[in-house]
Amino acid sequence: MMERLDVFRALADSRTDEIVVMTMTATLQWPLVSDHPLDFDFLAFGMGHASDFGMGLALARPERKVIVLKGDGGLLMSLGSLVTLAQYGPENLIVLLLENRTYEMVGGQPLPARADFVALANGAGIHGGGATGNGKVERIADLKTFQSELPRLLDEPGPHFVVMPVLNTYELPAVHHSDHAGRIRRLRDALAVGEPGATTKE
Amino acid sequence: MIADPAPIADRAAFGASARRTIDEIVRLGFTHVIAIPDSESRLLCEAAAAHERLSYLTPCREGEGIAIAAGLWVGGAKPLLVIQNTGLMEAGDALRGCGIGPRVPLQMLIGWRGYAGASQGKQPVDSAYPYTEPILDAWQIPYEHLMSNDDIGVIASMDEQANRTSKPAAVITGWKFQP
Q1: What is the tens place of the pLDDT at every residue in A119-145?
Q2: How many domains does chain B have?
């Protein structure tokens, strides 16, 4: 079990030009360690769909890694996305599943206790799957291992689906919903995206 | 309470050509077709999957597809969703969160399950048909109808409107696509 903020600090220390998409309580703590134009706060964009959004981004921008920070409660809200990830997930997508076994954002209600997220991801076909067959599923349960494996995760073709048991002992900052249209356009600007419809399949 | 639908004799037609519809989609510069196939859109989906200039994805549910489409748009691609009215209803939170709220110009071809029977004066088998247009109206999503090859221009209208307003827009397809 890892302290979530320590996980974020380690990731922020190693992150360079990757897009980081975060949702739910990760949106409250990631800004404590990172202020980057390629950070994207997905809160209130659709429950359970942060990794789907991240996959779309990764498909559109194959030259750039996309890291998604989402919780296990969110995964349960769109469990089929594991199968979609296994079918189409591109090599540049990394999903870090922050497993805290609760719906933390809405009060800490417990998740169904018997769900095994590594088994679910494997059952969906992610390991050995994805668009090019390089998909990997793993569980990283301690900070030292995460720090040592992070360079590989950031470099190695994926998609990567990493289950990370975490807890949080810090007081969470207040939720701050604002300017969703501006938020999404700032990310487009940071990616130097022009007017809609400018790209075609190679 | 949604009223029982009246017969729609003036919209009667026999469905648009899948090939011609895909040609129009490609002409308009769409890069990805994200579809949850149904019996009405089968031929359109097959044509999209086979087209060398389109990437074709079939997620498990419509909400997933909407979020994938939003990510594609942010990354500079131009996605088109092909879903059924029932899936639209399932995907309300994703459409609100990824499209309407942040003003992402998501574009959707929506299969109108129940239209064919209703257009012949039959009572719909379920509530999917009568709720479709009121739901789009409630979400302030503009739409037009694609019923035959004569209507294929509505796809360009949807594209223009979505990009001009930077909001979602839709085309409702009432009949099964033809070859």
Answers
A1: 999 999 999 999 999 999 999 999 999
A2: 1
